[in-house]
From TrEMBL:
It comes from Methanofollis liminatans DSM 4140. GO terms for molecular function: 5'-deoxyadenosine deaminase activity; 5'-methylthioadenosine deaminase activity; adenosine deaminase activity; metal ion binding; S-adenosylhomocysteine deaminase activity. The keyword Glycoprotein does not apply. Belongs to the metallo-dependent hydrolases superfamily. MTA/SAH deaminase family. Catalyzes the deamination of three SAM-derived enzymatic products, namely 5'-deoxyadenosine, S-adenosyl-L-homocysteine, and 5'-methylthioadenosine, to produce the inosine analogs. Can also deaminate adenosine. The preferred substrate for this enzyme is 5'-deoxyadenosine, but all these substrates are efficiently deaminated. Likely functions in a S-adenosyl-L-methionine (SAM) recycling pathway from S-adenosyl-L-homocysteine (SAH) produced from SAM-dependent methylation reactions. This is 5'-deoxyadenosine deaminase. SAH is a product of SAM methyltransferases and is known to be a feedback inhibitor of these enzymes. As a result of this inhibition, organisms have evolved efficient enzymes to metabolize SAH via different pathways. The pathway found in methanogens differs from the canonical pathway, it uses the deamination of S-adenosyl-L-homocysteine to form S-inosyl-L-homocysteine for the regeneration of SAM from S-adenosyl-L-homocysteine. 5'-deoxyadenosine is a radical SAM enzyme reaction product which strongly inhibits radical SAM enzymes. HAMAP family: MTA_SAH_deamin (MF_01281).
């Protein structure tokens, strides 16, 4: 696969976009021209015949390195799952584990057409190294959890400052830092306030879990007299740089608050169904309130993959099923959630196949079963295909996969397998020492 050098051009020739056959010319990481007459000489030419082009997908809520925990603990209640299975194992994670887990997540996302993701986890400097090598875009946040303890809060503040400085020091415009206050049930109001103030100072995003369960909302009201969005807002955490994951249990006033503040809600339907949170994000209320609505997979322990095509389908189906409406969340709107809205939520300029936009381009096999017949490419992308129809992926003009080949795949699978085995071994040894 040829690396395009800075200043070189790339041409995708004769590809279908919507119902039209076009050429897409890429220069300096952007779409320089798109249309039947776009063309000219190019350093790299990709044959688009037999392919349908879509904008690259943006995954707005995940914990990438949790790929290592895929299949480790399923079919459990959320609080029990977190406190008896996930957190005890995460206590043994190393930076090296997070590096390999994130590499595996990137590989999986690239293979299924995702060019960018919004991540909240630990050892984010190692995650940044993985993202850098894989050529994707990401917004990376250290998961801030103080459990209402002042000493822990000081540690989390230091960890956040260190992570943000390290990510900014990379000076890679594709990799952004964010703050990641985990949720209102794991972070004190003081911690939330610090996160809000630090994100303002640093001009970076906020990534938080919000109103995932009924229990979270009830306990928050009992403790503070406020619902979670109002509490977050009082602490300064709800603004246009905020991506709030889940948002299942919002009421109409909560939605108005998010809309008034210009914040984004990331829908994560697979995780919500698997963890039986018993309510679907109120998409229609959020949209009417003017909030941004985007889409994420959540981590592999609650999904169990990183395929945004599956997520698009589940979003469209869950909304219809839960809110009892056959017309709610049509395919075009799901695709917008997964592309342009996601890019806006992370502050990236992408997710659109238009002149001037970042060249985030995904090619799907036009001759795959899921694309046959091709009455409506958007319908097929949302309802029929999954990520395995993706053949070629460009992120900001850089080719991350061509004809289903991602460089270094075998090494990534081996490294991730070893990291997962070692993590479980360390955790088991620690248990026998107790
Ligand atoms: O669905 C979820 N709800 C709440 N927390 C979660 C979920 N999935 C993963 N984590 C946890 O969030 C932290 C991120 O830094 C990790 O501890 C991860 O296990
Ligand atoms: Zn999550």
């Amino acid at each position: 696969m040829k690396e395009i050098q800075q200043g070189e051009s790339l041409l995708i020739r004769d590809v279908e976009v919507g119902r039209a056959r076009v050429n897409i010319r890429v220069e300096g990481g952007r779409i320089a021209a798109i249309g039947a007459d776009a063309g000219g000489e190019a350093a790299v030419v990709i044959e688009g015949r037999g392919a349908v082009a879509l904008p690259g997908l943006y995954n707005t809520h995940t914990h990438a390195a949790m790929t290592l925990l895929r299949g480790y603990a399923d079919d459990m209640p959320l609080q029990d799952w977190l406190s008896t299975k996930i957190w005890p194992l995460e206590a043994h994670l190393t930076g090296e584990d997070v590096y390999w887990g994130t590499k595996l997540a990137c590989l999986e996302m690239i293979r299924s057409g995702t060019v960018a993701f919004n991540d909240m986890y630990f050892f984010m400097e190692d995650a940044a190294r993985a993202v850098d090598e894989m050529g994707m875009k990401a917004q990376l946040a250290y998961g801030f959890i103080d459990l209402f303890d002042e000493e822990k809060r000081e540690k989390e503040i230091k960890a956040t400052e260190k992570t943000v400085a390290a990510i900014k020091n990379r000076r890679n415009p594709r990799i952004r830092a964010a703050v990641g206050p985990h949720a209102v049930y794991t972070v004190s109001p003081e911690g939330l306030r610090w996160c809000a103030e630090f994100s303002r100072q640093q001009n970076i995003g906020i990534h938080v879990h919000l109103s995932e369960t009924d229990q979270e909302v009830k306990e928050c009201v009992e403790k503070t007299g406020m619902r979670p969005p109002a509490l977050l807002d009082k602490c300064g955490c709800i603004n246009p740089r905020t991506v709030a994951a889940h948002c299942c249990w919002l009421d109409t006033a909560d939605c108005t608050l998010l809309g008034d503040r210009g914040a984004y809600a990331s829908h994560n339907p697979t995780s919500n169904m698997k963890l039986a949170v018993h309510r679907a994000m109120p998409y229609a209320w959020l949209k009417d309130a003017g909030a941004g609505v985007c889409l994420g997979t959540d981590g592999c322990a609650s999904n169990n993959n990183q395929d945004m095509f599956e997520e698009m389908k589940f979003a469209a189906l869950l909304q219809k099923f839960f809110w009892n409406s056959q017309t709610l969340l049509p395919a075009e709107q799901v695709l917008a959630m997964a592309t342009a809205n996601g890019a806006a939520a992370m502050g990236f300029d992408g997710g659109r196949l238009e002149k001037g936009a970042a060249a985030d381009i995904v090619l799907l096999d036009r001759n795959a079963i899921c694309n046959t017949p091709l009455h409506n490419p958007v319908s097929n992308a949302v309802y029929s295909c999954n990520g395995s129809a993706v053949t070629t992926v460009l992120c900001q003009g850089r080719v991350l996969m061509q004809d289903r080949v991602v460089p270094g795949e075998e090494e990534i699978l081996e490294g991730a397998r070893a990291a997962a085995t070692n993590l479980l071994t360390r955790a088991a040894e620690a248990r026998t020492e107790e």
